[in-house]
Amino acid sequence: MQGYKTVLRQVDTSVDNLVDDPAVEEAAQLLKSGEVVAFPTETVYGLGGDATLDEAIARIYEAKGRPSDNPLIVHIAGIEQAKRYADDIPPGAEQLMNAFWPGPLTIVLRHNGSLSPKVTAGLDTVGMRMPADPAALALITAADLPLAAPSANRSGRPSPTSARHVYDDLNGRIPVVLDGGETGVGVESTVVDATQTPVMILRPGGISQEELQAVVGPVAVDPSLAFDQSAKPKSPGMKYAHYAPDAPLVLVDGDAAFFAAVVHDAKAAGKRAGALVFEEQIGTTGAEQEVSLGPQADPAEAARRLYDALRVFKRSEVDIIYAVTFADSGIGGAVMNRLLKAAGGRRVSAEDSN
């Protein structure tokens, strides 16, 4: 799919009301005509289209090269708008909306059938969220539409955290990219299923399990997060390979000395190695290319840097990439989830080598 002359449109983020911003107005008119546009959110850039229009959703799938059996998140501008498309909003869901919207939390609810079935992938549920980015909210408001919006990248590639990432992936495939600067959270929203008790995390993200539990009590974690590719996905990001860099990625469980030893063995085998490591390890791995995820004590910084870091490595420069691992809690758990998907589950452990 080619044919568009893709343009970058800068949003003036210094003003309070962006609904009348010329770039936002242009993008809103395109959405009303059934086109798709890329726009910033606080997590990653999204590729949005009218969630009620089959043709718009088909354009999203075509632009991304994404299989159409994977559901899409619907972005809305408030709880009242969510009620237009939800069949029911349980008390727990409303508690979460009041606590975390606008913000990086997607809530799965039963829909009332008014959305395109291409959005829901045949399910009786849909994930909805209210993004915190002012440009995103202005665009939804100006278009007066629910926007189905996966990440604005080619399917399988690292998600985009800047307008340039979007342009690199989708140039010629979409008409407009709204440029609102770099995103703040850096990984996608947490997705929770609020149609059951207790609420269940379907995808870790910008809101931690601990934060959710402080609002609604016990929160379960979907076992399909452990790479069950046969399960029918209830949430985006639960099916197919995601976030892959240009070269194969392997996770390394162990200390800095073990990491350096793994790199040494790869180089001895004739491979050019890349290292995705904590700031403290830069200069110690022996890899041909090292990229920092920030201090080991700051997993939130790692989340912000992750997708940009994965895009730095090029197959022409390295044959394999080794990456550090994170504790499976808080925002670090979300980073670990994305790394596991990017690696396709490949990992080596110091314990296994003893």
From TrEMBL:
GO terms for cellular component: cytoplasm. The keyword Cytoplasm applies. It catalyses: L-threonine + hydrogencarbonate + ATP = L-threonylcarbamoyladenylate + diphosphate + H2O. ATP binds at residues 66, 70, 125, 151, 159, 203, 243. L-threonine binds at residues 43, 75, 129, 149, 189. Its EC number is 2.7.7.87. Residues 21-207 form the YrdC-like domain. Keywords: ATP-binding, Cytoplasm, Nucleotide-binding, Nucleotidyltransferase, Transferase, tRNA processing. GO terms for biological process: regulation of translational fidelity; tRNA processing. Gene3D superfamilies: DHBP synthase, Threonylcarbamoyl-AMP synthase, C-terminal domain. Its main location: cytoplasm. It is found in: Cytoplasm. It comes from the Bacteria. GO terms for molecular function: ATP binding; double-stranded RNA binding; L-threonylcarbamoyladenylate synthase; tRNA binding. Belongs to the SUA5 family. Required for the formation of a threonylcarbamoyl group on adenosine at position 37 (t(6)A37) in tRNAs that read codons beginning with adenine. This is Threonylcarbamoyl-AMP synthase. It comes from Salisediminibacterium halotolerans.
